[in-house]
Amino acid sequence: MVWKWSEDVRALIRTSLAAILLSVATLPADKILAVDFDSKQAFATYCTGCHGAEEQKGERRFDQLRFPIVDNDTLVETQDAIDQLVLGDMPPDDSDQPDENTRQKLIEYLRTQTEQYHQSQTTTGGETVLRRLNRREYLNTVRDLFQLNTQMFDPSRNFPQDDLIDHFDNVGNRLATTGFLLEQHLIAADQVIEKAFAPETKPVIQHWHFKAPFIQQQELEYAHREAFDSKYLCVHETNNSENHWGEYAPILKFRDGAPHHGRYEIQVLVEGQNRDHPHPSHQVDIDKDEPMLMGIIPGNPNLGKLSDPQPFETRLAVIEVPDGKPQWFTRTIWLDQGFSPRFTYLNGPSNARNLQSRIGLKMLKEQGRKMERFGEHYVQALKEGKLPHLRIHEIKIKGPIYDAWPPPSRQTILGEQAFTRDRIEEIVTRFMAKAYRRDVAPAEVDQMLSVARRSEAAGRTAYESLKDTLTAVLCAPGFLYLDEKPDAPNSTKLSDVALANRLSYFLWSSMPDDALVVAASEGSIRAPKRLRSEVDRMLQDPKASEFYAGFCDSWLGLRELGGMPPDRNEFSPYYSKDLRPLMLQETRLFLRHLVEENLSLLNCLDSDFTFVNRTLGRFYGMPDMKGYTFRKVTLHNKHRGGLLGHASVLTVTANGIETSPVTRGVWVLENLFGTPPSPPPDNVEPLDPDTRGTKTIREQLAKHRNVPACNECHRRIDPPGFALESYDPIGRWRTHYAKNQKIDASGQFVNGDKFEDIVELKQLLLAREDQFTRTEIEKLLVYGTGRQIEATDRPEIDRLVSEAKKNEYRFRDTLQSVIESSIFQSR
Hints:
Blueprint: H1 6-23, H2 40-46, H3 72-87, H4 100-120, H5 135-146, H6 179-197, E1 206-211, H7 218-228, E2 233-235, E3 248-250, E4 262-273, E5 292-299, E6 317-321, E7 327-335, E8 340-345, H8 352-366, H9 376-384, E9 389-401, H10 408-414, H11 424-436, H12 442-457, H13 462-475, H14 477-480, H15 496-507, H16 514-522, H17 528-540, H18 545-555, H19 573-576, H20 579-596, E10 609-612, H21 614-619, E11 631-634, H22 647-652, H23 661-671, H24 697-705, H25 708-723, E12 747-748, E13 754-755, H26 758-766, H27 769-785, H28 794-806, H29 811-820
Antiparallel strand pairs: 1-9, 2-9, 3-8, 4-7, 4-9, 5-6, 5-8, 10-11, 12-13
C-alpha cells in the first residue's frame, strides 16, 4: 500500500501539475481587418422590422451590424442570419419576402463577409484546452494499459461527476482538477497497481459444490423452508423491481466470494416453474410465450446486501431455462476477488412480493383459514399459487482458471524477465512511455525514480518501491492529461503522436494500441491511405463500442436517460421489461449500422429499419419478434423510423410523468439542427398545471403563444414538439391522452410548411439535410477534439458539409472526412 509515502507523492504530483499548468501558453489577441462598408439597406428592408431599435425578437438586433466583420459577436450574428435565410425561416411568412434571386444574393454577400473575417484571423482561440481524462476515459485507459478486466472494478467510482457542457463529458475547459479529485486519483492508482500485481503466486484451482439445504434472503427464508423444505435456491422476479423480493439469488454459503481474481467455471442445475401460469396478465407481467431467462450477475457483501442491487450489475451470462425439468448448464465467467455469482430471473415479474401476498391471502380466505403466523400467506402462494419462478437444485464452481501465468497485467509491467532491483529504471522508463502515450524525457524518468529512492529509504523493499513508483506515474499529469502537442513551434497542427492519441480517444475513449503507436512513430499516420486504414481497423475493433455509446450519450443527451425515472404505476413496463438498457442498445446499434454499412446519416431523420429484440419489439407493437438478441428489422409503421421514433430519445425528453412539446421541440432544434432557442424571458410565468386534465398541452401552450415575447420562440419550438406528442413518456405510440382527449400532432413551421403528423414532419426535416449534416459534423468535432465549435471553424465546417453532400451524406465517409479535417488534426 502507498500510505507510508503518500505525502511525498502528493507533493511531487502537485508540483508537477502546477508546472505543467503554468506552462500553458496564453492565446494571442485577434487581429482585426478594418474595412468600411454599410449594409443597412438590405437589413432595413427584410430584417430590422423585427430585429431593430424598437423590437428585438429572439434577442437579435441587426440594425447595428456593420461590415466588414471586426469581432466574433458580429460574426455569430451574421452566421445566425445566414442560417435562418438558408432554412427559409426568416423573414417569417407574414412579412415581406425577398424574391429568390435577392435571397441568394444576400446569403452570398453575408457568406463573403464571414469568409473575409475568417481569413483575417490568426488567433489560436480554436485550440483545445489542456484536457484531462474524464471518468470513462480513465477507466478504459487503465483497463487497456494493464489488460485488466473491469466488469467488477472501477477505480474511478468515487471521482466527482464530470461537468457536462451541451451533454458532452469530454470538453477540456470543463474538466477541472480539484484537490479532492487529486486525492481520489491517489487512491485509485493504488487500487489499480494492487490489482495489476495480484495474485503474487499462481493460485491452486479449487472446487465448490452447493446443494440443499439452501439459504434464501432473510425476508423469504421462512416461506421457502416451509414450502420447499429449503430444497431449492429460488428466484422470483426481475432484477429491476421495487421491493427486491427474491430478485437476486445469492449463494450465501459462498458469500466471501472468489478467493482470487480469475475465470471461474459455473455449473448450475436449474428449472423453470409455472411459465404458463393461470393468472391474468395485468397481475403477472411476464410474456408466457418467451422462454424464462436466468442471468448471472456479480455480488460482493462489501458493496451492500447480496439480495439488493449493487454498483456492478454486469450480466456475466444469460441462460434460457427449460420448463419443469432440471437441466445442467455450464458457463465460464470472470470474478474479481470477493465477488460471487448471483442468479436473477431477467424476464420475471416485477412485483413478486405483492403477487405472493395477494394470491396467498386469497387462497387462505377460500380455504376458510386465518393467518395464525405472519408469512403463512407467502407459504401458501409458493406451495400452490402457481407463480412463475426459477428453481436452482445444485451449483458447482471451479477456479480460478488462467490461460497464462503470470497474468497479462503483470507481464505488461515486468515483461518476460523476473523482477530484480537493477531492473527498476528499465521497467519505469518503459512503463512511463506507455502510460504517458508518448516518449518521456530523462528528467521525467528521474523525477519518478526519486519516488523509488525515497520509498526504499523509508524501509520498503525494492519490489514495493517499484509499485509505489508506478502508482505515482498514474497520478502524474503525463498520464492524466492528453498529449496535444503541435508538430512544430508556432504551429497548431498536432504532432503525429498527438494525432494518434486524439484518434484513439475519439473512437475508443482509450489509449492508442501498438499499431497506432507504430503509425505515429513512422510518421505515416497522417497519410490519407494509412489514416483511412487505421480508422477502418479501429471501427472494427470491439473497443469501438465506446464511440457509439459515448457519442450517442453526448450528442443525443442519453446519459440523462433514467435521470427522471418514469412513474412505476403508469409506466410499469419500463421496469418490468428493464427497458432502459434495451432503449440505449437500439440507438447505439442503429448508429453503428449506419457507420459500418456507410449508409446515409439522413437515416437519423427517417429510416425504414431499426434494431430490436423480442422485448423491445413487442413494446413497439411487433408481436412476431422473437429472441433475446437484437437484430435489424424492417419497419412497417413509418412513425418508428429514425431517431425520433427511438424510445431512448422519447423517454429522455419526457419527465417521467408527462410529455412536453416544449422540451421535445427544443431537443429537436438543439440536437438535430443546431439552432437552440433563446432562454425564456425572466418575466414569463410557467404554465399552470391542469390537474383536472381538461385541457390538452396544445391548449395550455396557446396562452404562451399569445404573448409576443414568447411567441417568437414558441413558433419555432412547438411544431416538432406537437408531432412528438404521439408518443407517451416512455415512447409508446398513442392517439389519445389519458383522459381520452385526441392528440393533435399537426403543426406549421415559421416558413409556412405544414404537417399533419410525425410522418409528414420527418419529410419536412429531411428537406433540411444540409443543416442536419452541419449539426452532426459539429457534434462529431466537439466529441473528437474536446472543445466547443467556434466561429472561426465555419469555413472548414462549410467544406465538410459540401463534401458530405457530394458523398450522398454517407456516414462513414463523413466520419473519415471529419478525422482528416484541419479542425480535428489541430490543437
